[in-house]
Write a structure and sequence with these properties.
Length: 98
């Protein structure tokens, strides 16, 4: 039973990722995320991306707290993702420079 649940979760995630890949414009992106997420969820997700960008630029925690309002716990969590995660933030940030 547990394996079926895990397979369902994996199938749902794959469908979600494939859905995201179909976005072509900023307007489409905004519409989809506005429909999918609460304002609080969007604020949290967007804050994490900004924190990750600032950490990748070697900004210090105190500056990040002051500019984003993120807690030090959130900054630390994002920092762990940058150091030990799948590399998603770095991959996206490297595309900004092109």
């Amino acid at each position: 039973m547990a394996n079926n649940k895990k397979e369902k979760i994996n199938a749902n995630l794959q469908y979600f990722y494939e859905t995201i890949l179909k976005i072509e414009t900023l307007e489409e992106c905004e519409a989809l995320f506005d429909d999918m997420c609460t304002k609080t969820e969007l604020a949290s997700i967007s804050q994490r991306v900004v924190v990750a960008k600032m950490l990748s630029e070697k900004r210090v925690y105190s500056d990040i707290v002051a500019e984003t309002g993120a807690s030090t716990a959130t900054i630390s969590r994002v920092n762990r993702s940058l150091a030990f995660g799948a590399g998603g933030y770095d991959m996206i940030f490297s595309k900004e420079d092109k």
